[in-house]
Amino acid sequence: MFRRKHASHFNSNDAEQREAKINELKSALGPLSARGEKYCSQACLARYLEARYWNVSKSKQMLEESLKWRATYRPEDIRWPDVSVEAETGKMYRASFKDKEGRTVVIMRPTKENTKSHDGQIRFLVYVLENAILSLREGQDKMVWLIDFTGWTMAHATPIKTARECTSILQNHYPDRLGIAFLFNPPKVFETFYKAVKYFLDPRSIEKLNFVYMKDEESMKVLYKCIDPEVLPVDFGGRNNVEYNHEDYSKLMLEDDIKTSSFWADDSKTVNHVASGTFVPDVTHQSSLIAAKAS
Questions:
Q1: CA 271 – CA 50 distance, rounded (Å)
Q2: 32-46, 97-111, 226-240, 265-279: which range is least confident on average?
């Protein structure tokens, strides 16, 4: 009696369909400032579309919220001296090596938390993310997280308020940036904290999490499949005898700050637009930066 309306089937693996969606989103955004144009590269638009299952309307809303956040938070203005105190213990830093696909690796060590500043920790996270993205090789737009939970206890647990904001920033303003994450040696007690945080995670983010244990050969194979044991630090079951050196790492970050300032100098006088104030570069226009020796 009633004819069912046929839904259009979108195939994300179809290059032409993807391009059409990207162009539709770009058109829907309207005019952008110079920085907005840089942020909203083809790859960027594709990430936001992927995050919202290629729904243009929802992707547009998400992207506009990110642009507003960036205009207010100004991640492009964060410099190493602003956050270096958060890095003194090596609790989070960009590794000197890439994974087998050439992706940037970010190492995190929750047991080395050295401050209680909510704002400072958030600001440091954003700085590390921006720096990791800037260091991506041409053709790459995702990173790898290597999180060491060896010796972790509930005393090391991140306050729920901070964990919630970190998760919100990662998922809403850095969509589809995570390629894979390894949670190394998480103790049994970590399950309680994980259950609380898991509530805020997107299902697809959860799928990228891998629990790895030094004494579990099968789980270690998953890690070795991603990162060559020769470059993987000994602490993670590899054969690379390297340790974090704050002084050396600071020198590298200061060099990166200069490159960052130089990269955006031409846009420094751009008048803010509702979709301006953005910073993440189109990685296809940025050469690989010096790898961090500190990992």
A1: 30
A2: 265-279
pTM: 0.84
User: Measuring CA to CA, how many Å separate 176 from each of 44, 47, 52, 115, 162?
Assistant: 9, 6, 10, 29, 21
Q: Alpha helices of 74-198 — where are they, by DSSP H?
A: 80-83, 118-134, 160-173, 190-198
Q: Backbone phi, then psi, for 5, in 5-degree steps? A: -75, 125
* Residues 6 or more apart whose Cβ sits within 8 Å of residue 97: 105, 227, 228, 231, 232, 240, 291, 295
Give me the residue label for tokens 């990110």.
66
Mean pLDDT of 76-103: 96
Per-residue tokens: 24: 């539709």
3 state SS of 293: coil
**Separation of CA 192 from chain center:** 25
Alpha helices, H only, the chain: 15-29, 34-39, 42-51, 56-73, 80-83, 118-134, 160-173, 190-198, 203-207, 217-226, 246-264
What distance in Å separates the CA atoms of residue 269 and residue 277, rounded to the nearest whole number?
A: 11
**CA-wise closest residue to 275 among 44, 69, 46, 24:** 69
The rounded distance, in Å, linking the Cα atoms of 281 and 164 is 26
